[in-house]
């Protein structure tokens, strides 16, 4: 056990180093005039397809004189599709250059065709200089005065202008401009002579090194963006206030009447037959069907909720600053691994409370409930990425690392949590005794069935977050930067409150209709927001984005299905917990025989 604890501590230390390696590396970079500062070329790809990226030298750019040297990358960077290699441009500190030649080469017909295809698809490149990002388009399509696509002319930029700001011995900012007058015509299928050049201009600035990343953060904090975010918050708060006020008024009035009616003396109660939710007090705590699956879903949802809270904590303390390459992916992998004990404990503990016997099978189900679909999706999408030779295809070594993390950390913690949950010997707290035989549920109208109830339950929470969803999608599936984590956290809290309240309300109306099978219904209603988010994915893909192609479509809908499934489990657990508290409260408040 001591060795296991030691391995967890080592794993945590590695995690901390992974999250801070970019910042610590950058903070040590002080230069003297003429010092060689490496420029790393990262990737190229269609601007509108963020998942479809390729290695920089997959296009026939000028290669370095020696062997292409790759930068050693952390786990999160590889998961993010980063593949940094040393670029052939020499940008020495404070060393200005004017139209320096990188290389002269004769582009073959095949190379011209590859460049033309890339220009047609709006390919961009991404580089890093002293851990600062640089972007630029590799060429342009001249459509002016042309009617048909066959008449368009395609040009490749062959001259890059680097503008760099410095403060004493530190690099503060860098940008790249393409010379619109220095072009290579790619329109015809013929060999072309190309001379690739670059210029470097240095300029001093007063901006301190500590604030050099603020430029990227401020882009998401512009006044007109903040107005929309605050409008989203106000819209959500109004929804919450109206909903909570409405539900509180209705439930308090109805429950007050119910309690007064049920508190009558026994003689009066005998004269009139029981109706409503008290009528089913002998069935309301009858354990649900498929109790092992229910406990596993509750355990997985609790783990994902904990993961989300930890991610928000790291975001709020500033770990996920812009272009901290791979920090979010590293955090997701490691925190998910370290919180698997919560899933094991919650699932096994609740399964034993439901008088389940086969807790080992329950643990296996808990471990596979979220990871299983995610693994299958990853296998398919990784195969697609390999077929496309894209950087999204994970190297074999990275897959081995992830498998080792799952085997050596996730699984043992899941088992330890399960053993602790099994041995907790907690009993299910039911205020009312359950009868031997279940009552028959009376016929109910169609709108009281599961799917219409899920539609009602999912719409309100979704309406509270849909404005913020656009910005998150534009950041994850586009090139917009998102840094307003405080507003996102407020929206998350609102989402939890609305989900809990709407699920409690629907649970009450279900019980009032003498339908005692509320366990699964409360979980499904709570998680139904995940279905609405996936429906929003369809709208975003077709109406708000320009994504196209089999690979990008597969990645978008595949990974969004996993994310929405995670939301379903997490919010389902929240909805059930809220309903359980409510049901226990109202049945504890009446006299049950």
UniProtKB/TrEMBL annotation:
Signal peptide stretch: 1-24
Which Pfam families does the UniProt record give? Answer: EMP70
Q: Does the keyword Membrane apply?
A: yes
Localization, UniProt: Endosome membrane; Golgi apparatus membrane
**Residue ranges of the TM segments:** 228-251, 293-321, 327-351, 363-388, 394-416, 454-473, 485-511, 523-543, 555-583
- Look up and give the membrane topology term: Multi-pass membrane protein
**What SUPFAM superfamilies does the annotation carry?**
MFS general substrate transporter
* Annotated Gene Ontology cellular component terms: endosome membrane; Golgi membrane
Enumerate the UniProt keywords alphabetically. Answer: Endosome, Golgi apparatus, Membrane, Signal, Transmembrane, Transmembrane helix
Q: Name one GO biological process term.
A: protein localization to membrane
Family of the protein in this entry: Belongs to the nonaspanin (TM9SF) (TC 9.A.2) family.
Q: What is this protein called?
A: Transmembrane 9 superfamily member
Species this protein is from: Acer negundo (Box elder)
